[in-house]
Amino acid sequence: MYILPAIDLLGGKCVRLRQGKYDDVTIYNEDPIAQAMEFKEAGAEWIHIVDLDAAKSGIPTNHEIIREIAVKTGLKVDTGGGIRNMDTLTKWIEEYGVTRCVIGTSAIKDRAFTEAALKRYADKIAIGIDAHNGEVAVDGWTTGGGVKALEFANTMKELGAKTIVFTDISRDGMLTGPAFESTKELVDKTGLDVIASGGIGSDEDIMYIKGSGCAGVIVGKAIYERKVDLKKCLQSV
Known about the structure:
By secondary structure, the protein is an alpha/beta fold. It has helices at residues 32-41, 52-57, 63-73, 86-95, 105-109, 111-121, 149-158, 180-190, 203-210, 221-224, 230-236; strands spanning 2-10, 13-18, 21-29, 46-51, 76-80, 100-103, 125-132, 135-138, 143-148, 163-168, 193-197, 216-219. It has eleven helices and twelve strands. The protein has an eight-stranded parallel barrel with strand order 1-4-5-6-7-10-11-12, surrounded by eight helices. 49% of the residues are buried.
């Protein structure tokens, strides 16, 4: 299992939302590039970056910052937020040095784009499944998609998806522990590489979610709040 320290970008700053609420924001660092370098110095090989402005609007907003992080740090960048057409996706992969793009809202709303994207870039795409009470949420977590997470994951697998990023919205930013059972269910019943996200609040939580069989785990607020020792955890997983 690998660890992806997270940077959520809003207005060009590193922030965390509480349960995905845009009106409940904490700013942790006004210099996201410096923050990314800290993760690299701790030993990280991956970084997870979300353009929160784009996730809500569908318009790439913090893309130049993300490109600069990719170029200056050399980290493998896993990024999402507002990737809703092939032109945007191609730019991220071909021009911006991004290792993997996360498609969320479009995977629900635009099946034709999702199919085309997976056909062309299957190894460079993760499907973002952000769930609340088992239902997939869209538009930056502001609305429900009307589809159950497990059902949706298997549908994406049929289209060629190999990786999913699974976030339990109710746990995100709460530091109350990861969604072990639902993560394990996705691992066991889909056979996909599952990246777990949401709820990590301690070093022990990271080792706990590893037991679900997930391929990776995204850790954000717990690092910023110094509840997780990133360097130590990277050495132990």
